[in-house]
Amino acid sequence: MSILGTRVVRTEDPRLLTTGATYLEDLRLPELQGAAYATFVRSPMAHARITEIDVSAALAEPGVVAVLTARDLDDIPDRPAGAGAEPLLAGDVVRFAGEPVALVLTEEAYQGEDVAELVSVDYEELPVVVGVDQGLRDETLLFPGTDSNVVSTGGAEAFDDAAFADCEVVVERTIVNQRVAAAPLEVRATAAIWADDRMTLWVSTQNVHGVRDAVVDRLGLGKGAVRVIAPDVGGGFGAKIGADRETITVGWAARRTGRPVRWVETRNENMVGMSHGRAQVHTVTIGGSRDGRVSAYRLDIVQDCGAYIRLGTMLPNLTMLMASGVYDLPRVETAYRTVLTNTTPIAAYRGAGRPEATAAIERAMDLFAAEIGMDAAEVRRRNLVPPDKFPFTTKTGATYDTGEYAKALDTVLDAAGYEELRAEQRRRRERGDPRQLGIGVSTYVEITGGGPEAGETARLSVHTDGTVTVWTGSSPHGQGHATAWAMLVQDELGIPMDRITVRHGDTDVLTEGVGTFGSRSLQLGGTAVHNAAVEVKERARELAAEEMEADPADLVLDTENGTWTVRGVPGQGVAWAQLAERAGPDGLSADTKFATKQATFPFGAHVAVVEVDIETGVPRLVRHVTVDDAGPVVNPILAEGQRHGGIAQGAAQALYEEMAYDEYGNPVTATLMDYTFVTAAELPSFELVAMETPTSVNPLGVKGIGEAGTIGSTPAVQSAVVDALAHLGIRHIDMPATPERVWTAINEARTAQ
Amino acid sequence: MIPPKFVYRRAGSAEEALSLVAEYGDDAKLIAGGHSLLPLMKLRLAQPEVLVDIGRVRELSYIRGEADHIAIGALTRYHDLEHSELLAEELPLLAHASGRVGDPQVRHRGTIGGSIAHGDAASDVPAVVLALDGTLVVSGPSGVREIPSGEFFHGPFETALEPEELLTEIRLPRPASSSWAFQKLTSRAIDWAVVAVAVQGRSVGLVNMGSTPLRATAVERALADGAAIPDAAAQAAEGTSPFPDRNASTAYRQHLARVLTRRALEEAGSRA
Ligand SMILES: Cc1cc2nc3c(=O)[nH]c(=O)nc-3n(C[C@H](O)[C@H](O)[C@H](O)COP(=O)(O)OP(=O)(O)OC[C@H]3O[C@@H](n4cnc5c(N)ncnc54)[C@H](O)[C@@H]3O)c2cc1C
Question: Is A464 helix (H, G, I), strand (E, B) or coil?
């Protein structure tokens, strides 16, 4: 029986959860002996001109190795200082609170903050731009010399006024997809050495190769001059893609001073220095007929870029691409503008552009349903792309591979007991229960893998002791690659998992690779491993044929015990160890790269049930039922884990989380006392329903599951809050639906009635 | 998030704590559970030169039934209050409220004395002690004094404690009425109260409704005058001016005080 599809307990967990894992701070390598500790001096101001930096007092402190500022960055290539270009250390101007201004190196870690306080920076305040509305006004420009804070636009140049002309009903609304923080358990960290004209960086990252390329580029080094290693990584959620300015600066400082340098940020710094996510404002317009058919949809996106361009110009393109969701809509128009503001830059956050698309269309569907007085699930059903239309190309240019949208919707409604929930809702409304029930339905499709540069690498070696090492270009940071990759190899080679070691994160071993983000690992990295196993198997067949003096075509591998025998010939056969021996010095190994331009499109449907205490406004998620179809499941424990985490994170955006700034650009949620990320206590046990629709894009038939839960849950939970109050005439509440926001909405609705 | 340098001294007894505080004077700060002080130090909002650690002064950790009151040592931790059989029997309000503070880590470290001495109006236990008409026993250079809880809380993070004084004991009279309730509204389970209401009999304490823990005197008066619960509770925000913050505006807090007071009185009534 194949091990694939079975509930194999994660082999990496004992190490990751108890002892034995090596996160960046745990590294005790001889190369890092005598390292200096890096502390960044960060701007307390959101927008200011730096008139002077005096480091003399800091330099006089005991334990100080160096204090470095932008002026010291004279040994790296110049960068065109165009709009949105992010420096390593701020030069003349700081553009967000928390921006690195100087780097302090000390003998001991604890000395850093004391010394940083002594670096005296004179700031001349500049007017601050907070929020996209202010950014769009262009009264204050973040980059003087440009004529606008808008750094990128795309989509329709002008909307077609006639698009909604034939609609019986048109609804328009502006909704906010708020800024959130990734807040991974392990904060950002880097260690760096410069030796023999080479830089080695240990980085807590999702993609060592991307970090390497960024460092090479920024510091003007030869491609071979940088090695990047990722040890165990404690979470990333998209915000650990690539090399942040701090990482590059730490590498540079190691070269500059000739000393190993270590940096690990504080939680406070993490909240302001690590990229934030989402931060879009949508104006949705939806029109159709009273029978529930939607004929036109428009999505106008304003993306808050933050102070510099990280991914702020890329994300809205994904949002536009996925704008029409699971629906077959005759007319779709999209456009975006990306606007600079004096806030932490925006980059990927679990879903990266796609959750925003889903949130917008799902909200629009709800608004449309409310306007025509039809059940929200029914309106969705009437507009879904039918199964016989796949592959389906949307008006925004995405080609969906496979999908069973109506089946997903009906399955989740059935599992949730939708009709009974509606009946319970009616009963509570009738008796004026202070705890009203809301039911939120969302359907979604998202895009994973694919893209022109996509692909992933693997190396698989069978050793002479019969064990296997798998190197993957993919980059686990909690997902469970060690378990899944070993299962794929065991399934193909019949070598038991406990003899298979999975390794990742060293650009000197696999010089090519991409990493883990965008739910790409299994479909690309897993396929690369699978293909490597297939290659090794074919090579082994030849070797076994030589060994047994038989025709390769007659060799059979018994995957139950991992031995090769000749068909029809009884006997012991040969084991993998023997074949590895026979393979000689080159070993029994394969290097593979799997690439495909074609993306996959996971989809699903969620039902959230929320109780709203209408006296206090407190919403509480009491049930969450989902179908998340990402094709065949290699290991349900891993897939369910991804769904659980995703649902929690998505629900958190709907109900709790927001990275907020005051009018002066001060972050007001920069500690975990103020940034209310979700905990298990706020969440019900999730009810997960299985559904597997394969894709033909890769040999495993799999799609990505890493972000699906997040994408489906946010709109379902938000919608459930609104639905609980629908009888009061409430149609929308922006996220996060905090108790006071809900209470205010109730008050306003009552006043209006 | 790394505090500046400080001198650390550990006191083995209340007496030693007092003499250490006397020795260092204004530069010294007592640390008990550290769960209010350390966050402030990590953010460098507090920068004491000397920390006098009283966390291991065992003699100040106790819960005792006395003739007419219950005596609680200032170093008693929330966890011990939450699980005390004596309190479950005689002062379930305090046990229950203690169990709603923060999360398990906080409850294993934080102390009743630290919470009261810190004088944070957002803390739960001070309002409970106030509602219970507790008395605070304080030792200092000039001996021991007893301060009624009604005179103890002066303003935001300001109390009747003098710099060189140590809070040693909290005395809580056995309540005349056994009806009690504690209603705490939080965004997430581990959060501080947006507003909380403690009820013992006809005493009502309010958390986070101003610069100090408060008694809802208008409610208490109305109840004494025989008002029905909803009418009395409607006066819960009378005379309060809670600070607006990210969690709640002044108006929303006042609304919550009314709703939670009504619920608390009803809940207490169901226990009578
Ligand atoms: C994550 C988190 C969540 C929390 N949630 C809540 C909550 O929901 N509700 C709540 O009420 N509290 C909450 N707290 C605060 C917690 O209850 C604190 O532990 C408590 O307020 C202070 O007690 P402590 O023993 O830790 O005092 P410390 O932090 O050690 O001291 C606080 C102050 O009191 C002084 N002090 C301490 N003991 C004495 C004494 N015996 N005599 C004189 N002065 C003294 C100290 O000098 C210091 O100024 C939370 C804290 C954290 C970190």
Answer: coil
> Measured between alpha carbons, how far is A318 from A351 in angstroms, rounded to an integer?
10
Range of the domain at B220: 180-271
Does A740 reach chain B within 8 Å, measured CB to CB?
yes
User: Number of structural domains, chain B?
Assistant: 3
Q: What is the pTM of this model?
A: 0.96
Q: Do domains A276-448+599-752 and A452-594 have the same CATH topology?
A: yes
CA distances from B35 to A266, A677, B20, B32, B42 (A): 18, 20, 21, 8, 11
Q: Do A268 and B43 touch (CB under 8 A)?
A: yes
Cβ pairs A/B, distance under 8 A? 58
Q: What is the CA radius of gyration of chain B?
A: 18
Among protein residues, the one with the nearest Cα to ligand 1's atom 39 is B114
Q: How far is the CA of B261 from the centre of ligand 1 (A)?
A: 25
The complex scores an ipTM of 0.95
Contact (CB, 8 A) for A521 and A479: yes
For chain A, positions 653-682, list CB contacts with chain B under 8 A: 656, 660, 668-669, 671, 673-674, 676, 678-679, 681-682
What's residue A129's pLDDT?
98
* Residue pLDDT tens, chain B, 272 long: 889 999 999 999 999 999 999 999 889 999 999 999 999 999 999 999 999 999 999 999 999 999 999 999 999 999 999 999 999 999 999 999 999 999 999 999 999 999 999 999 999 999 999 999 999 999 999 999 999 999 999 999 999 999 899 999 999 999 999 999 999 999 899 999 999 999 999 999 999 999 999 999 999 999 999 999 999 999 999 999 999 998 899 999 999 999 999 999 999 999 87
Say if the Cβ atoms of A618 and B39 lie within 8 Å: no
**CA atoms of A441 and A411, how far apart (whole Å):** 12
Residue A452 pLDDT exceeds 70? no
Looking at the structure, give the CATH architecture of the domain made up of residues A34-126: Alpha-Beta Complex (3.90)
Pick among 1.10.1740.110, 2.30.30.140, 3.30.365.10, 2.60.260.20: CATH of A276-448+599-752: 3.30.365.10
**Contact assignment for B190 to A113 by CB distance below 8 Å:** no
Can you list the alpha helix ranges (DSSP code H) found in chain B? 14-24, 37-42, 78-82, 85-90, 92-99, 104-109, 112-118, 124-131, 217-224, 229-233, 250-271
Contacts of A267 in chain B (CB under 8 A): 1
Are residue B158 and residue B229 in the same domain, yes or no? Answer: no
**CB distance B187–A676 less than 8 Å?**
yes
Question: For residue range A616-642, what is the model confidence (pLDDT) as tens digits?
Answer: 999 999 999 999 999 999 999 999 999
DSSP A600: B
Residue that has been written with the tokens 């003998």 in this structure: A107
Q: Phi then psi for A94, rounded to 5 degrees?
A: -100, 140
Which chain A residue has its CA at the smallest distance from B257's CA?
A616
Report chain B residues touching chain A, CB-CB < 8 A.
Answer: 1-2, 4-5, 39, 43-44, 185, 187-191, 194, 246-249, 252, 255-256, 259-260
Residues A343, A380 contacting (CB under 8 angstroms): no
Residue that finishes a domain, picked among B173, B208, B237: B173
B117 lies in the same domain as B155: yes
- The minimum CA-CA distance between A612 and chain B, rounded to whole Å, is 13
B74 lines ligand 1 (CB under 6 A): yes
Q: What is the pLDDT of residues A708-749, one digit of tens each?
A: 999 999 999 999 999 999 999 999 999 999 999 999 999 999
**Residue of chain A whose alpha carbon sits nearest to that of B247:** A740
Q: Which helix (H) or strand (E) holds A581?
A: helix A576-583
What are the domain boundaries of chain A?
1-31+188-264, 34-126, 276-448+599-752, 452-594
Q: Is B31 in the pocket of ligand 1 (CB under 6 A)?
A: yes
